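User: quick one, sequence for these tokens?
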């Protein structure tokens, strides 16, 4: 994250607008403050390759701390501020952070974290002049530092942690390039290539900056001299307000945000002028075909998609035009080469489902407790996979069917939950859906749907039968849910990813409990 040229040439231009408070920071102010942070790191004797961490909600201090680290040759780890104290403590300790920056609103949680992280040397807290020990007031420390650049500057890097949907989060370490920040434009290349960014843009960031995609969007926007409008939390109606108010040109979202926008009344969606939009980019989770089609119908062919992992060992990209010609695809590879392999490591023919591997993408290694994690066995030399399952068509477009971990095996037949979820999402009464496999004496597993109803709908006695009949119009009988449960909500990460392991594990625990106690039922045990 480097923007000195813009600070020199247009110091009064707004770099970041904090939507919840309507406050802003200019390029000149951001340059001075990030230099002060870099000077503070020097004073604390942090050296190239050392680590810091941030535990904060979206605010104007996040980018200045990150920018200070990025021009000091440091690794910085933004930590999910919604984690529990043990979860936060694990990430901070595992990341080897020497210095940690926290928000005032998180002081109570962080007080429990401190004893878990004995190797942290300094704890800085925002907006508190005289905080309790061991915390130090950030603003006083920053303001006592010089606003002049350190010399020499060296490019640092984010060390993001994986979302941890199938295990403990893993630190993902990219090698430092060993150059001055101005000599690298990796963020710009990614922004232009995957997110269609351009110079002078205005981007809306509706997601937390501790996630990889919003962080990358902010970095690319600032290096291109644009303005980033940062929301505190996602609100569908407020997104439309901000697009009109700030003449937003680019937005990055996840499919859950699409669904919530489409759920707004048509009168609300048509009330705002969205003509400034040039690109709406989505990633992080599969987008149901009906949802994406409705977004293109509404906003036009400005919906772009990319697919990849936090590890950045491979990416695909897809325009609206490509998607309309290859409905359901996540695009073709733009980084790394895609291989589809079966369980024996044999390449699958075109159109046949297998595990998705990337070869020849970016270099990275796992850090901390995951440092000795070897590449997943069974893949091509140098290949990496996160366990997604899919296939390639004749034109090289990739289609994802699900995560391998969530595949259902019923009567010896493989069933991919995402396919069933996509059909459920076309049922008029369903707002959200998850499909899992639950234990079954005869078939091994049986297909269960767990759904959330849209506002205004209630579960009727014939609801399950109507859902099943709807599914049978598009799916083979063996793929259709054998049971349907209605719940108030489903556990989703802020990236939009469904935390399906939580649902599956709770149902399996309920089934095992029922086996031990006939008075217990799976349905009564779970409300995700």
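Assistant:
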């Amino acid at each position: 994250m480097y923007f000195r040229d813009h600070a020199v040439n247009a110091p009064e231009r707004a770099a970041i607008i904090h939507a919840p408070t309507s406050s802003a920071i200019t390029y000149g102010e951001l340059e001075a403050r990030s230099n002060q942070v870099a000077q503070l790191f020097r004073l604390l004797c942090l050296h190239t390759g050392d680590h810091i961490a941030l535990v904060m909600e979206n605010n104007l201090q996040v980018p200045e701390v990150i920018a200070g680290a990025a021009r000091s040759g440091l690794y910085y780890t933004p930590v999910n501020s919604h984690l529990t104290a043990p979860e936060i403590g694990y990430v901070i300790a595992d990341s080897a952070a020497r210095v940690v920056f926290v928000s005032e609103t998180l002081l109570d949680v962080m007080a429990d974290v401190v004893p878990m992280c004995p190797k942290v040397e300094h704890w800085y807290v925002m907006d508190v002049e005289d905080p309790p020990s061991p915390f130090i007031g950030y603003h006083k420390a920053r303001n006592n530092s010089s606003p002049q650049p350190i010399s020499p500057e060296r490019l640092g890097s984010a060390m993001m942690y994986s979302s941890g949907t199938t295990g403990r989060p893993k630190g993902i370490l990219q090698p430092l390039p060993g150059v001055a920040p101005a000599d690298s434009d990796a963020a710009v290349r990614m922004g232009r290539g995957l997110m269609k960014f351009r110079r002078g843009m205005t981007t809306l960031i509706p997601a937390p900056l501790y996630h990889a995609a919003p962080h990358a969007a902010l970095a690319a926007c600032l290096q291109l001299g644009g303005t980033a409008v940062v929301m505190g939390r996602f609100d569908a109606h407020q997104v439309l307000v901000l697009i009109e108010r700030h003449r937003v040109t680019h937005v990055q979202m996840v499919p859950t945000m699409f669904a919530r926008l489409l759920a707004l009344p048509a009168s609300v969606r048509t009330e705002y002028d969205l003509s400034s939009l040039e690109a709406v980019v989505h990633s992080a989770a599969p987008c149901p075909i009906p949802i994406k089609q409705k977004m293109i119908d509404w906003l036009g062919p400005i919906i772009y998609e990319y697919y990849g992992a936090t590890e950045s060992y491979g990416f695909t990209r897809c325009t609206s035009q490509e998607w309309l010609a290859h409905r359901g695809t996540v695009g073709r590879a733009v980084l790394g080469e895609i291989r589809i392999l079966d369980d024996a490591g044999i390449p699958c023919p075109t159109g046949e489902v297998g595990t998705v591997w990337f070869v020849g993408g970016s270099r990275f290694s796992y850090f901390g407790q995951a440092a000795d994690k070897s590449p997943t066995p069974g893949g091509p030399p140098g290949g990496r996979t996160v366990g997604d399952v899919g296939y390639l068509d004749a034109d090289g477009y990739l289609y994802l069917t699900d995560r391998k971990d969530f595949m259902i095996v019923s009567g010896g037949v493989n069933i991919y939950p995402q396919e069933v979820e996509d059909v459920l999402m076309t049922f008029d009464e369903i707002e959200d859906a998850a499909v899992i496999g639950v234990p079954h004496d005869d078939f091994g597993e049986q297909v269960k749907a767990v759904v959330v109803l849209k506002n205004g709908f209630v579960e009727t006695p014939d609801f399950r039968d109507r859902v099943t009949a709807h599914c049978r119009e598009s799916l083979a009988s063996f793929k259709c849910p054998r049971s349907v449960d209605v719940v108030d909500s489903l556990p989703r990460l802020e990236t939009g990813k469904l935390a399906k392991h939580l649902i599956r594990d709770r149902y399996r625990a309920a089934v095992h409990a029922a086996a031990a106690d006939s008075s217990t039922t799976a349905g009564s045990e779970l409300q995700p």
